[in-house]
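Protein in question quoted for reference:
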Amino acid sequence: MSGHLEGWALGRKSLVGLLFLLIVLVAVCLASIAVGSKEIPLAGVWHGLFTPTGVEDDVVIRELRIPRTLLGIVVGVALGVGGALMQGHTRNPLADPGILGVTHGAALAVVLSIFLLGVSSLVGYIWFAFAGAMIASVVVFLLGSAGRGGPSPVTLALAGAAVSALMHGLVSAIVLLDQQSLDAFRFWQVGAIAGRDLTVLTQVLPFLLVGLVVAAFNAPGLNALSLGEDVAKSLGVRVGTTRSLGIFAITLLVGGAVAACGPIGFIGLVVPHVARAFTGPDYRWLLPFSAVVGAILLLLADILGRVVARPSEVEVGVMLALLGAPFFIFLVRRRKLVRI
């Protein structure tokens, strides 16, 4: 009886914490719409949202800041959940979603599309980037599954490191040979949610939604895996199926986010640790908390990037690197990392 009461109390506390973070997310979204490199008074923001007449401030609000904010929410959610899944399946508190080769696979596909096909538009990059991310993750999973034991955290990490190194070398070779590829790839690689319209969001959104649904179904099995594979098997969990679903969800979430915005680092690394401070190890709560915290952190970094260098902007990928690197160093230097 006491166990049920403790579980109910913990669930109630987690629900209150999640509602609080959702309120914070709403406030950050409003700040993202109101704050930018171009100063717009609050009255102008209100006018642009509810009674637009087509003036310049209305266009900035409706055509630039609202799509940018929506994309930031979706990408932050995807990277936060992808990071939590990645750390859970590899049992590594320093794992990043890019460990599966997703980021480097997308980068190689983008460079090849520029070098071989002359693709020059952001919308054109998306499908190549997503295809490259999918192919890279499949290759890593097949390599990590080779052998009698099937996929394991160690084999997946090793396969991901090897494939990522190979693809990084190929990307470097191509961009050194072709100036056009270098210029276009440099623009995509910085990682940004600025300059993307709703077309970009609508193209990747279905894949991200499927990834979130698969992640939700993966959470109970991931809880069992955190107790050890032998214990999970004794509880009736199909370890191979659970791990395959997790890798599939990571590929959809991270691949879609990278395709839309380029590689945005540190969200997948930092966010699960922040969320775990609220929820503990239960992935049924950790995943939704990671989603909300990921969106909040990405939008805050984007807002900061708009105001630190007015009238110019610092892209969100750069801001997250500046903010995330000290946290990464802090994790590495801790005597006791969070056990996963």
Q: What stands out?
A: Residues 1-6 have pLDDT under 50 and may be disordered.
